């Protein structure tokens, strides 16, 4: 007897348009693919005659909701290698978020470089300890755990402020060293520094950003700030906005343009700004306000949001504006719930080619 698929249950705080289910999203993705020239898949979009480009990708290729059979990956594409190869055949860039939770390892970066085409680019999210956020001690490399003072080693979670300076240095050294295989292959697009909402515009935090820029030592850095005080108000029209952008420009760091829920402490207005001539970055998080700052919500649920075509279209002129100012403009769909992010990425690609 054939099994009947369970009906899609729309999240209680969303509507069917923004939580249409994987089957409906697949239909939209198929329509978008029909509008994309096959030779464009897996390659950046050329902009003008000056070597500028736009790359569109997602913020995950391994989330369990994505890897379910026939959600995004074709049936039979089940191994880690096959998934990355398939993803790279569709998009020319990806954001690596796993490095926020666990420090990367050289061996894994070597595999990533080997399993992707020559012009594929990885943007790697900084580890939690690098951006003032807590990490689970058990997820640190053994060498770092062994070096922790006993009072810290016995804690379930620690913050960078708790670490002796030499161990904080060791976190950065381990992180950057692990990415060397990507750098050597020309596939390291940069490091994403995503700060929490308690990271406020203080002199101390400006010093932290300046120190991070020095530690990156030429690796492109992109900064996402998640507190409205950096912008002087909810609409981003305050003087603080210009101060923030000037600071990032002086430090050589790329400002991350954001689409996300509004009206919250961590809300970021959708400002278009390019602070590095080498890199412009856009991250589209979805607009699920009910779960954005809620405690004990699975991470994937925060991003469970399917953009409408109208909402995506509003970003097209902003992406064009950014791409006129930077050599590379990278757009990441971070609404990685099932195939929502990959569907919206394909729809954006279809509109930009």
What does this structure look like?
With 353 residues, this protein is α/β, with parallel strands linked by helices. The protein has one domain: Alpha-Beta Barrel (TIM Barrel). 37% of the residues lie in helices and 15% in strands. The protein contains 16 helices and eleven strands. The chain has a nine-stranded mixed sheet with strand order 1-2-11-10-9-8-7-4-3. It has a two-stranded antiparallel ribbon with strand order 5-6. The longest helix is centred in the middle third of the chain and has 14 residues, at 165-178. It starts with 21 loop residues before the first helix and ends with a helix.
Can you summarize this structure?
This protein has helices at 22-34, 64-67, 80-90, 98-101, 106-114, 142-147, 150-153, 165-178, 180-184, 203-216, 239-251, 289-292, 299-302, 309-313, 316-323, 340-352, and strands at residues 45-47, 52-58, 93-96, 121-125, 135-136, 157-158, 188-194, 221-224, 254-259, 279-284, 328-333. By secondary structure, the chain is an alpha/beta fold.
Query: Overall pLDDT, averaged?
Result: 94
**If strands are numbered along the chain, what order do they take across the biggest sheet?**
1-2-11-10-9-8-7-4-3
- Distinct helical segment count: 16
Please give the number of β-strands.
11
CATH architecture name: Alpha-Beta Barrel
Strand-pairing-aware structural class: alpha/beta
Q: Please report the first level of CATH classification, the CATH class.
A: Alpha Beta
The SSE order reads HEEHHEHHEEHHEHHEHEHEEHHHHEH
Mass-distribution shape: globular
Rg from alpha-carbon coordinates:
20 Å
